Amino acid sequence: MSIQFRSRIKSAINYSNELNSYGVCCGITGSSTVKSFYECFTEGGHFIPGSTLSVSCPQIDTELGCCCSCSYVQSGGFEQMQSYPPTTPYTGSGTKSNVSKCECTRLGGKWTPGTCPELTSTNLENLCVSNVNGTQIDVRYPRACCHLGFDTNTGWPTEVTCTDICNSSDCAALSTPEYPSYFDANTRCNIPLLSTQTNTATCEQNPLLLMATSSKLYDGMNLSIGSCYTLSENSEGDFEYDCTLSPEILCNEYWVEAQDSDETYCDNKFAPSNPVKINGKYSVQTITEANFNALGLTPGDQYQGGVYIGIFQPSKLNTVSSEVYGNIDFSDPNLGTFTSDDIGGTDSKWAIIVDEILYEVPFLNSEETDLHFNTSLWDGYYNTYGYDNLFSGIESNLMNTIKYTNRKGFMDYYLPSIYELYFYSAYLKNKGSYTKGNIISSSIFDLKYTNVRKSKNKINQKSFVYGQIINSNLSDNYKTVIIDKYNKQTALFFRRIVIQ
Fold first, then answer.
1. Most buried residue among 211, 237, 461, 470 by CB atoms closer than 10 A?
2. Per-domain residue ranges for the chain?
3. CB of 226 within 8 A of CB of 257?
């Protein structure tokens, strides 16, 4: 899962006077000269501000020789270095003549007297291999530095990235006061440091990201960052999530607020799972009951694409159904359980998430032919997506715009059944909040579900779907209605997560 970072950084402080000030520079060969701080720093010297040449520089070993060091590896050299020990050693660069022993030690290199010979696989071990923290290794090998990358034009942080770098001081130079970089002396970015290892740097799990948790972004607007999950199609045609670190206002799909410091951003417990395709069709999302309970959700919480309203269970596969608020007989609504018929899938209970954005749509548009489907009163996912090879779901333009369409980072929304709509009404009545409109369901009207008990799905040559009035300003609030399939009404999209 890739990780990026989006935010604004504070204005830079002007240090030009300090950088241009002059003093004594004690050079890497022991020389004492007057230079600016910047000039001394770029030469690797020690700067003493405001001093004169009467200052005595520290005594150092000024003997010159051959230094093999990571710092002398030319551009492109790191990419040619295999895990150590390599099958084919890299001999293109990494040594420099006329370097003092002190300077070579400062660079973490290996120093030998005399002028550097041409580097070969034969003399490589003598010139460049040394004991580093108890391990024999080529001193030219870089280590991983996790840091923020910045856009050179805007100054905005663009991503948390890993760069192979020579030492901790070089890594520190890539940090900012708000976002310190992180140097890992035991790994590289893309390949294992040693051939006996398998691990590489994992920048998304290092302290850099945890330090960013309390960042005050957007120049005093106090917007904290969180995880933004974006669903995209990979080269194999499958869908998977990428995670970016972002304020909520910059996240167009599923955003999770930063959790406590024990959970890294993109591995938090609210992270979505990649859609799973079986026999060419994407399966409904599932979760164990223990793992779902560990989320600690309560009805009304925002979760994975909408508002979590509770766990719904039909009576078909349970002793008793969930409580719902409505009445399939069109009489006054009431709170109670319901009896499921056999039409529907085989899932016994599921968490329902509601996208509370209202859509004004007809069940069928004027150009569509009215086909009758034997739909479920309690399983909207069955009505929308079908079940196995027995039923492919309702065929209509509306359903085609719902099925496998990415909304808010999820591609498994469906049009709810009438009993799932009643379940939502029970939630709304308990919360004391209301959605306005005649809300359509995916359950197609049939008189067999009323007291008439005779199968008939058309009245005056018109066919209908069940709906429910949800409007606290009307006396008919929560009443069941039938809605002409060609009339534009209000639709809500649901998601489900099956509890196993």
1. 470
2. 16-60, 61-141, 143-213, 225-274, 286-499
3. yes
